[in-house]
Amino acid sequence: MHVPDGFINAPVSAGTGVVAAAAVAISLRGARRELGGGPGEAGERTAPLAGLVAAFIFAVQMLNFPVAAGTSGHLLGGALAAILVGPYTGVLCVSVVLLLQGVLFADGGLTALGTNITDMGVVTVLVAYGVFRALLRVLPRRRSMVTGASFVAALVSVPAAAVAFTGIYALGGTTEVSLGKVFGAMVGVHVLIGIGEAAITAATVGAVVAVRPDLVYAARDRLAVRLELRPSPLSADPEAAPGPAPQPVPAAARRRSTRPLWITGLVVTLLCAGGLSFYASSSPDGLEKVAADNGIDKQAEKHAAEDSPLADYGVKDIADARLSGGLAGVIGAGATLAVGSGVFVVLRRRRGGTARNGTAAATAPAGTER
């Protein structure tokens, strides 16, 4: 659903750019809390995972899957990011992916970057996170319900993004097309794409839940390990009142290395970007198909980065298609991992520095100047 340059006029593109910039600014502040952690949270484990989530989204977005005759779809990633690393960090993950796709691979217009971040990042993250949290409040407290809730949240987020695009197009579309036709076509095809999105999201979340449930940010309160104190069977008074209510196990007692999961995730990411991407569907994705069928693409403009050595997800001057595409995918995944991890590490350190300064100020003797 990458919107190219020319689909939306300049005033509305500028407006969505302002919305996207505000969302990123808010997310930078909110992500400090998510990455820095809080009571019962493991922020130090979220920071490295967030960079990997961004790289994984980039890689899986290369895997277009067929959804109808002559149409394909791909992961948007907002639901997956929001559930695994939190809504603020999730917006940043998708924004990093979209930025690098536009600059390095000529995928998604540069003047439309604000539109793409607003639609594919902000809308999908907010809708998916809201649906996911609402479902957890009413579903039984079981791990399988977390996977099921992630499926539904991802499924809903994709047509929600299609509705949002239709609204943006209604405000600033550059061609005279019936909005009813655009709405029906966009929602219809993206419901089908949403099924693929839901399957990928649920499979990924379920895999993480199975091995490290504490790393699923949006469900930590449902998956927290608890320590229950019970009377000893050797107690002299077997009828004694039960002990205190279950209490969370201290974070230090639950801390385990994230390295095995991180390495596994990296291997899967590189396999998707460097190998499986060669077998992706070559059919146009949902937006491209709707645009072509309804004449929306008549005003599409050439991409400013069309001469990039990585344009169209291939390395320039490498004739072998498999090698060219695989190498481009690996470069893209690596760049996304590096940029995303760099952003998140800086944010976490700033959060840590702020917390330490606040603690020092609070414990300083009265009248002491700092």
Automatic annotation (TrEMBL):
Keywords: Cell membrane, Membrane, Transmembrane, Transmembrane helix, Transport. The chain crosses the membrane at residues 7-28, 48-67, 79-100, 120-139, 151-171, 183-211, 261-280, 326-347. It is found in: Cell membrane. Its main location: membrane. Gene3D superfamilies: 1.10.1760.20. It is a multi-pass membrane protein. PANTHER family: METAL TRANSPORT PROTEIN HI_1621-RELATED (PTHR34229). This is Energy-coupling factor ABC transporter permease. It comes from Streptomyces spirodelae.
